[in-house]
Amino acid sequence: MTPIKRRAVSATVVLLFFLLLVCPWTLASSQRVFDEAGLLTPSEISSLEEQIAQLTGELGLDLVVVTTEDTQGKSSRDYADDYYDQGGFGMEEDKSGVLFLIDMDNRQAYLSTCGAGIDYFTDYRIDRTLDAIIPKLSNQDYAGAVEEFLIKTQDYVRAGVPDDAYRYDEETGKVTKKRSFPSWQQILLFAGIAVVVGGAASGIVAAKYKFRYKDNTYPYQENSRLHLTNRQDIFIRRYVTSHRIESNSSGGHGGGSSTHSSSGGTTHGGGGRGF
């Protein structure tokens, strides 16, 4: 190896080492499965990481999975909320996402929601998700439990936020309803834009064709004739179509999401259950 090549390689190694010291998260920033309790195999972790990466881009929610044997004296809720906040997870300004915690210390499964995740995961939907997760955990099928969490998340985000969605602050009792319609300011703005655009379009058309108001009525009564010589109705066949109306299993049953503040002051929703 020539001296020039040696210097180039050395400079590259030094630069990479510096980046690792200053920004240790650069190589691990995409990690979303933190199996601190050792419940998953390496192949299961790899598969789940791939699924989460795909769903995150598709759904617009940050999805995090954590297992632990030591919550440091915290409840499952506090541990999950703090892990989410301190890990810097979440998408957009409201830190939208959901963290699924398998707590082997307190023997609980807990879902911590934030941002848009609060509205997608209503209290009812969290209960239904736990219904699917708990049997897997009881059978020590930990990867299967995470799979159920991902399936439910995909179903609920695709179903959308329930029409009657609202948030209930457990600490203050305040109820905040989801806005279903634009505000009156937005309505006036859109109406004004419509008037301006419509007027401009009409003016352009009128100027182009030099339209003049005059009587262009066509004398259809004098210039039209109708003679019916024969009429026959023939019945050919009849079609009957039946359709089963499915119940809305992904939504409905109340759109309420209970919320609280984490130790860091961030608003979270969520719920858990023992196994």
Structure notes:
- The chain is α/β, with parallel strands linked by helices and about 280 residues long.
- About 45% of the residues lie in helices and about 15% in strands.
- It has eight helices and eight strands, in the order H-E-H-E-H-E-E-H-H-H-E-E-H-H-E-E.
- It has helices at about 5-20, 40-60, 75-85, 115-120, 125-140, 140-160, 185-210, 220-225; strands at about 35, 60-70, 95-105, 110-115, 165-170, 175, 255-260, 265-275.
- An eight-stranded mixed β-sheet has the order 1-2-3-4-8-7-5-6, sandwiched between helices.
- Helix 2 links the parallel strand 1 and strand 2.
- The longest helix has 26 residues, at about 185-210.
- It starts with a helix and ends with a strand.
- Residues about 10-30, about 180-185 and about 240-250 have low confidence and may be disordered.
State the helical fraction: 40-55%
> How does the overall form come out from the CA principal axes?
elongated
Number of strands: 8
Span of the ends, CA to CA: 61 Å
User: Could you describe the largest sheet, including whether it forms a barrel?
Assistant: 8 strands, mixed
- Tally of individual helices: 8
